[in-house]
Amino acid sequence: MENKKMTMQADRDNDLKRWWNSVPIGQAKEIRNQIIERCKISPFVWGNWINGRTQVPELAKPIINEIAGKNIYDL
Predict the structure, then answer these.
(1) Tens digit of pLDDT for each residue in 4-21?
(2) CA 12/CA 52 separation, integer angstroms
(3) Helices and strands, counts by H and E, the chain
(4) Which of 7, 27, 58, 75 has its CA at 20 to 30 Å from residue 68's CA atom?
(5) What pLDDT, on a 0 to 100 scale, did the predictor assign at position 50?
(6) Helix, strand, coil shares of the chain as percentages rounded to 5?
C-alpha cells in the first residue's frame, strides 16, 4: 500500500515536468519568470519543483494552472 502511495505522489510530481517539457523553448524563460514571480519563489525552488526534489505547495498549484492555461493539477 505504501508503494502505491509513493507511486501516486511521484506521478503528481512529474505532472509539472511533463508540462514543462512541452512548453516551446521561445516561451520557456517568460513562463518560468512568471511562475517564479507570482509564486514568490527563487529560481532554485523552481528547479527543485521541476526535478521533483520538493513538492509543489497547494497554494502554488492554481497559479501554475492559470499561467499554463490548462489544468496540470486537479484541484
Answers:
(1) 555 555 555 688 999 999
(2) 10
(3) 4, 0
(4) 7
(5) 94
(6) 70, 0, 30
